[in-house]
Amino acid sequence: MTRTAIRTCPLCEATCGLRITLDGDRVTEIRGDVDDVFSKGYLCPKGATFGELEADPDRLSAPRIKRDGRLVEASWEEAYEEIARRLPAIVEAGGPDAVAVYLGNPNVHNLAGQLYVRPLVKALRTKNVHSASSVDQLPKHVSCGVMFGDPLAIPVPDIDRTDLLVVLGGNPRVSNGSLWTAPDLPGRLTALRKRGGKLVVIDPKRTRTADKADTHLAIRPGADALLLAAIIATLVAEDLVDVGDHLRDHLAGLDDVARLTAPFTPERVATACGLEAEQIRQLARELAAAERACVYGRIGTTTQRFGTLASWLVDVVNVLTGNLDRPGGSMFPTPAHHRGMRRPFRMNRWSSRVSGLPEAIGELPVAALTEEITTPGEGQVRALITIAGNPVLSTPDGDALDAAIAELDLVICIDPYVTATSRHADVILPPPPAMQRPHYDLAFSALAVRDVANFSPPVLPLDATRPDEWEILLTLAAIALGQPAQVDTAAADAFVLHQAVEGVANDASSTLATRDPAEIIAALGDEPGPARLLDLLLRAGPYGEGFGHDPDGLSVEKLRAHPHGIDYGALKPRVPEILRTASGRIELAPAELTGDLDRLSTAADAATEDGLVLIGRRHLRTNNSWSHNVAGLAKGQRLCTLQLHPDDAAERGLVDGGCARVSSRAGELTVDVEVTDSLRRGVVSLPHGFGHDLDGVEQRVARANAGVNSNVLTDRDDLDRISGTAVLNGIPVEVAAV
Ligand code: SF4
What we know:
six-stranded mixed beta barrel, 4 domains, Dimethylsulfoxide Reductase, domain 2, 29 helices, single chain, Rossmann fold, N-terminal domain of TfIIb
């Protein structure tokens, strides 16, 4: 029987509404949901093939256990027993830090991942928690943590109301937004220009976004912080600073940031940036003159040697031009869920054992993982749990990490595939397909350009032979706490709920602060799982029904009655309410960041045009390493190539379609060549997430289009000093014809 289901796409940050037609359990068509309050029918090629991804025959439907070097199918009981037999023994011998955790990017697209990974991590008590955040976005969390007191308070461009958008190191026409949730960004960017607004893109590559911009400045990789410092120096020198009445009383360090950036004049940084001094000055003047403007920095700014400085200076420019926290500028969303009492941000509460890399947002940089495995001594990592992650392909120095993981005593992967990483697993626990799970975007509603809420119930019933993902996570948590493998997950979930309710009730800022936790728990019902926890967070949130406080307010039930979502309107100013700094102000010149300006100063004067540097790139049809097994996306595509400028190619005797050897301090690879004038001279580009042809990988489409792992070239010792994030953009490389 044919039917239609409405569901949010879980494949990227844009959170588009999907209209899914099914014949029984089989998806026959996917279209954009024209009634979705946020995406209004927009759909990209990935969303259109969501059904193919869900029905992929390479997905595991049962656990695997390694026996005699081979991954063989096992029952859930056997898989849990194996873990219960081996995991506690490793903790007993080496302590909690002997177990490392790696959380992949799909966790933030998954309600169970958002709500139940934390109990597992708490149960493990390990300091060695790593995630995809420290591959590409940790510097932004750190800069926002220090400036605003909350690492999750990340302002986003108010694209629908701005007059001037400056994009550094981002390609939103292809990525569809990153740390910025705005479905149909191509349409929104076109609308900006149609209403007379201007788009400026600063990127070493003439990306698809740059191609459609009013101005493209082809900066040298890694020079964004210098450019931003020079913009600030110009604003100050030309008396163009105007923070606006709305911010004037909420700032600290305005004079300091002006003084500290003064030496970075446009003339001084021009060579390092590969731009003319006058281009920099002109951009500063345009930002100051625009009625409403915003600067947005993305992956090119966070995966470089000055990632945290660049992330900080983006927001300083927005403040100094009066564009932070005002319509058309860079604004803080108000997510519909209760976010809890947030203490002032602190980092470096612990550090990695071997290199002393700093903790931030409760995790250590993944650049530390390989050496934590390979370096003997107390606290050496001997077991790894990956959750929806493929660090062998996604994280720095991939070959070395691959070899290190192979030597571990125990590897547990919660993963639907046998990937480059999970092929090392002793136990693989496959979660159910996304359409069998409820969905709500907790992370992305906090980055969205409108305040929206949208809940998707499961499209298909959970397969009776397998546990839900939240049950897998709570079972592992219980085993980590020393319990036997047969876990009463409903009871464990009741405990999690109890703790969550206590957390809300203890939050003085919550409307539930004076309420009896038992009354709230009773009102939430007895159906375990993420929808119940979500219901608590929505009912306690800013639009929530507050357990009787506002009968028209938000709840899961209300969202079930609004399958296309609820739009709570355009973003609203949130300063000072959102600030969590000790001073209660926006810290414009925090010592944690200004202490790195000497290093930036050295880089300003050490600029050289010699040699090649490597940058990454995104493609509309891929999402990191996790959409490469979809035939409909891979077909007829030439995705994993080394792009370089015609003059750089000619100098090395390279031709389009030929083959090149690329080498860096960390490693080398051989890859097909694509000659294109879209890159500035001296810059070459490889996409990330490829390299699926390793022994044992069971992803047939991905293997057939394997490509190369660009992370073989990334150097885990070449880091953004403040956050410990590895440099992925601006890696010195040599390229030679093969
Ligand atoms: S843009 Fe992102 S959310 Fe929208 S359909 Fe494509 S993958 Fe899905």
